[in-house]
Specification:
The protein is of the alpha/beta class. It is globular and about 80 Å long. It has 36 helices and 19 strands. The strands form four sheets. A seven-stranded mixed sheet has the order 1-9-16-13-10-12-11, with helices on both faces. The protein has a seven-stranded parallel sheet with strand order 4-5-3-6-7-2-8, with helices on both faces. Helix 27 packs across helix 31 and helix 29 runs antiparallel to helix 31.
Length: 782
């Protein structure tokens, strides 16, 4: 193995004057003392206070400083400054886990500042649109009770898209956006860029701060936000960077085992290892545990929130001193470590990991005053040249920031595979988002161009305004229209979809499907047969975020046919029964795909590909339907010959909750009234029938959301108790009671029925809830 010195990241000369006292107005001496824990200001913090005049100026700011440099405190200063002016403040974090962490941290901080700085502690509110954890959907109203709000970009953008939230937005005095370099990300970037452009376009914009460790040319962000101050620092907790080049035949696992074993001999050290894939993280953690004879844990997105929390606690407490995580979670891993090792630098089908991402990962080494060490391993098969990588890390060559709209064009198929917007849908989404902010007034294309020119992409995006309007108003989508005064408006369907944060391709697909169903049966008889399974199936067909559980086979098709046939009539899927079920020669899945606007393989094999994909999507719908109705993961994996459900269930349910709640908003009679009158020539009675069927579909969706939210083998019991006793007794047994039953090994209604009130109390169920359970069981047994 050859070792390359990749340099040091350190405070160096910027520390000059760090111990000099600052002449601060009250109460800022107290505030900064709390923010820094009584320590001297870090270089980036001193630059903000002294040179950028953060506390006196009202200009926007861009903070470009390494990970572990103290730039978060600069953002917190801006938030508190707004609170001291009796305005609200907003912190935008890219991940829900980070948002929760920051909300907890700020709540403690503001409590400590009361009553010396604030007469009473400002309220901190977390809002991420998480239905499962917070009973929120993306289009929920913003939290009214909060003074300081912590949100994800998508949740804040959803708030901006609803004109009824204008007064709430007007109360914001400061908006701090963490990890602002994500503006170049194909998936997250468009949302982030648009919300920033929207803020700086307001008549009285809040003060905006962009924080990032990996922006190659922060001057461009400064010029974009003008008037704006750039606070730039390279100082951080000292970090030694190295590149280890392995030769052919050297085992990376053996190298890691020896190196980590030596590192952990010092009782004050801890190690984070980053790999590409989740299964690699699990495998390496097991190998290192065997070699080191000490617990090594994996940490990745395939684990539940509780599982990840327990692993973080083990690492922070020192019970476990080595964690193996995936590089995809590097941004969300806020674990203090002295050493960081990146094992995988080349990703199959993607290429080599960029320098800016490597620097951000390595920057997690070193905490407080203790120096850190960051190591990148290069193997013979990797794309990086070790010497070149060491030089790039030493010089910290970071690519210039670019708008995601300036990236290479993305096809619809490519967008689906990577979660990005297609090249056609990206500008259309921006235009639709601008229109949604305008209530019913509409906007001229000139006005739209002006707003789009305020994005980082500027004229490159603004020049595509007309193209975006044509895309939205195309007959097969009908998401917008141009009136006689040449003003552009969203249709009812377009507004419902964009305010629900649904991808426009999904909105257009469902809109066309419903119109086709109404054209086939103007009475709405087909819609009358819609079931909860159809909700799940449509999500699986239109979204790339459902897990790929199994490959298609004729055996799987037969199994799904039999499962569907055994369902009660009220649960049978309209779409599956009419268009998917059948052999390769009789299935009409291609017609369904045509309605939804889904491509299905090469032209000569489209019918076969559509059927195969439809069945695999039906498998996802079947598994989620059963899970929502209380079937255990163990039973599902056994029945359907799938594995790994426990690891993906939470993320999958969250996706389903987001999409089902949004799609539910599309089943509104006003969205299809014109089609019924003009194309179907429906009479008043037929329109009333369709209105009733669409309402029933929405009710099904609401029920489905609750079932997915409370996935449990005893989910039926929970829903029954809440339905029967909520109004009568005021309080009913909740999910906590269900979890107590599960922890006692109770996993079926038959087991519950065999228990007396005393039995239930003995396992920890409150007596009033035990009585409710017994009354419910007895009612069912009558």
């Amino acid at each position: 193995m050859k070792t390359y010195d990749a340099g040091w990241a350190t405070a160096a000369a910027e520390d000059a004057g760090a111990d000099q006292a600052l002449d601060l107005p009250k109460p800022w001496d107290t505030v900064l003392g709390s923010l820094t824990g009584g320590r001297s200001l870090r270089p980036v913090q001193r630059l903000a206070v002294e040179e950028a005049q953060l506390l006196e100026s009202r200009q926007h700011i861009v903070v470009s400083a390494p990970t572990n440099s103290g730039k978060t405190v600069v953002g917190y200063m801006l938030l508190i400054e707004a609170l001291l002016r009796n305005q609200n403040a907003l912190l935008v974090e890219p991940l829900r886990a980070l948002a929760q962490e920051k909300a907890d941290e700020l709540e403690v901080l503001l409590s400590d500042l009361s009553p010396t700085v604030f007469p009473s502690a400002p309220k901190v509110r977390l809002t991420t649109g998480d239905y499962r954890l917070e009973s929120e959907s993306p289009d929920s109203p913003p939290p009214e009770a909060g003074h300081l709000i912590v949100a994800t970009p998508e949740r804040f953008e959803a708030i901006l898209r609803n004109p009824s939230n204008a007064a709430w937005i007007g109360k914001l005095g400061a908006v701090v956006i963490d990890e602002a370099h994500l503006i170049k990300d194909p998936r997250r970037g468009p949302t982030l860029e648009l919300l920033i452009a929207s803020l700086i376009s307001l008549p009285a914009p809040p003060r905006v701060a962009l924080l990032s460790a990996t922006v190659g040319n922060p001057e461009r962000l400064r010029d974009w936000l003008n008037p704006c101050q750039l606070i730039r620092s390279t100082a951080r907790t000292p970090l030694k960077k190295e590149v280890w080049e392995l030769s052919a035949g050297e085992s990376v696992e053996e190298t890691l085992g020896k190196a980590i074993g030596q590192i952990l001999q010092d009782s004050g050290t801890s190690v984070l290892v980053f790999v590409y894939r989740k299964n690699s993280a699990d495998a390496l953690a097991r190998q290192l545990t065997d070699v080191l004879k000490t617990p090594v844990l994996s940490y990745h997105s395939g684990q539940s929130a509780n599982d990840k929390a327990s692993r973080r606690d083990a690492f922070n407490s020192g019970t476990c001193r080595c964690v193996v995580s995936t590089t995809a979670l590097a941004m969300g891993v806020n674990l203090p470590a002295t050493h960081v090792i990146v094992r995988d630098t080349t990703f199959f089908g993607v290429g080599k990991l960029p320098v800016d991402q490597l620097l951000q990962i390595l920057g997690r080494a070193g905490r407080g005053d203790r120096a850190g060490t960051g190591i990148v391993i290069v193997r013979p098969e990797d794309e990086w040249d070790a010497a070149e990588l060491a030089s790039s890390l030493n010089e910290e060559r970071i690519e210039p920031i670019r708008s995601s709209f300036e990236q290479a064009p993305v096809t619809s198929a490519g967008a689906r595979s990577r979660g990005a917007l297609s090249n056609d849908a990206a500008p259309a989404t921006v235009v639709a988002s601008c229109l949604s902010r305008m209530a019913s007034e509409g906007m001229s294309q000139k006005s739209l161009r002006t707003v789009l020119s305020n994005t980082l992409a500027g004229e490159a995006l603004a020049s595509r305004t007309e193209e975006a309007v044509r895309w939205l108003s195309a007959q097969e989508r009908h998401l917008a229209y141009v009136d006689e005064q040449d003003l552009v408006h969203l249709t009812v369907l377009g507004r419902a979809g964009i305010q629900s944060m649904l991808p426009l391709e999904v909105v257009a697909g469902i809109g066309q499907l419903v119109r086709d169903l109404l054209s086939l049966d103007q009475t709405g008889g087909l819609l009358k047969r819609w079931s909860c399974v159809d909700h799940l199936l449509i999500v699986s067909l239109l979204s790339d975020r459902s897990p790929k559980l199994r490959r298609f086979s004729e055996a799987l098709a037969g199994q799904l046919d039999a499962w569907h046939e055994a369902l009660p009539n009220t649960d049978k899927s309209l779409l599956f029964a009419e268009w998917i079920v059948g052999s390769a020669s009789t299935s009409k899945a291609g017609e369904l795909f045509g309605s939804l606007g889904i491509a299905a393989g090469q032209k000569q094999k489209q019918a076969e590909a559509a059927r195969n994909k439809a069945y695999t999507c039906m498998l996802s719908a079947a598994v989620m339907h059963q899970r929502a109705n209380g079937v255990s993961i163990t039973d599902l994996e056994s029945r359907w010959s799938v594995s790994g459900l426990a690891g993906v269930e939470e993320a999958w349910r969250d996706t389903m909750l987001w999409l089902v709640s949004g799609i539910n908003n599309l089943f509104e009679i006003r969205a299809f009234y014109h089609h019924l009158r003009e194309h179907c020539e429906a009479d008043v009675d037929q329109i009333k029938d369709v209105k009733r069927y669409l309402r029933d579909i929405r009710y099904q969706g609401y029920e489905l959301l609750e079932r997915i939210k409370h996935c449990s083998p005893l989910g039926g019991l929970l829903r029954g108790l809440q339905t029967l006793y909520a109004d009568r007794d005021g309080q009913t047994a909740g999910i906590g009671t269900i979890r107590r039953l599960e922890s006692a090994g109770i996993e079926s209604m038959r087991q519950v029925a065999s228990m007396s009130v005393s039995d239930l109390v003995q396992i920890g169920v409150q007596r009033r809830y035990a009585l409710q359970i017994r009354r419910y069981v007895e009612r069912r047994l009558r």
